[in-house]
Amino acid sequence: MEVVMFTGIIQGIASINKVIEKDQVKTFEIIFPKGFCKDLQQGASISIDGVCLTVTNIIDDITVHFDVVLQTLNITTLGSFKANQKVNAERASKQGDEIGGHPLSGHIDFKCKLQNIEKIGNNQKFSFKIAHNWSKYIFSKGFIAINGTSLTVSEIDKNTNVFEVWLIPETLSETTFSDKKIGQDLNIEIDRNTQIMVDTINAAIDEKLKKFN
Description:
InterPro entries: ATP_synth_asu-like_sf (IPR023366), Lumazine-bd (IPR001783), Lumazine-bd_dom (IPR026017), Riboflavin_synthase-like_b-brl (IPR017938)
Strand content: 35-45%
Function: Catalyzes the dismutation of two molecules of 6,7-dimethyl-8-ribityllumazine, resulting in the formation of riboflavin and 5-amino-6-(D-ribitylamino)uracil.
Catalytic activity: 2 6,7-dimethyl-8-(1-D-ribityl)lumazine + H(+) = 5-amino-6-(D-ribitylamino)uracil + riboflavin
Enzyme class: transferase
Number of strands: 12
Number of domains: 2
GO molecular function, one term: riboflavin synthase activity
Oligomer: single chain
Order of helices and strands: EEEEEHEEEHEEEHEH
């Protein structure tokens, strides 16, 4: 069975052309850059702002439909998508493709408000405050995906649960980050390898402690 995986390297900036409201489902009509949809088939997976979506209809060589259910709309930022909004897009990787970022599932863990933006030269530093139960999976120099983009955590304060990432000019020009404002929600996917390691170690410690009780 082929596992759908993304790399966190954004391949294009797409635009929400239309949002069609249905009963507990929204259909997004998205326009992609020319060439992005080459050989695309119905049922294929595309990451939109980090969310793995299934192609439900191909209108033409740049226009595609996706149906999104209520649970995904609530957990992610997709519930607030509007017409003309720009989004990060990445096609699912194929076996043998170079992984320029880190492996992503496209399953968002939570959305998080952008707390601060600091411009330093041509770079920008984004700060996020997260819930305590998620901060245990985030480490300085570790991976994290924000709106589908593979980024490196520069710093995290475990006391305040605030972490920072740096965005270089290349990342800012190839993604939608340059349009983001303080207070906006962004999609977060924790690095799965780190999550598994932390949970495994914690489970082992808990098991050891039980023997002393």
